[in-house]
Amino acid sequence: MWRMLHALKPLWINRENNMASSYPKAPQRKRPKNLNLLTIRLPIPALVSIMHRVSGAFLFMLLPVLLWVLHQSLANDESYQLAQAVLHHPIAKLICLAVTWAYLHHACAGIRHLALDAHYGLRLNYARATSRAVLIVSGLLTLRMGIWLW
N or C: more exposed end of the chain, with fewer CB within 10 A? Predict the structure, then answer.
């Protein structure tokens, strides 16, 4: 029995790397490697997907701060006045505008991703169009909120 297995050994052992394989080794291709992330041009759907993840992470990280500001504004009249004074500062308004953009972009991109999960807009031209629509709609809504904020 062992002699029979030993006779079959060349069929199941690749002598080059001693790995069990019956398939021939794939040819090695020399492919260019671009490791500079600043020179990579991503398509618009990829950018919208990455921005969706970044905005979600930003909102998640900022949640304790937003809850603390809400708690301070509801605690008593003095803390409400303090929170109102802080939020009227121009830097605080810019931070509120960034949070507004993150929320609106995350919501619009989330609706787009739900449509993609339901197999709507999977073709390349529709994916690009809905990506542009997400950027335009979230930008216009953020602009509208910025006008209202100032």
Answer: N
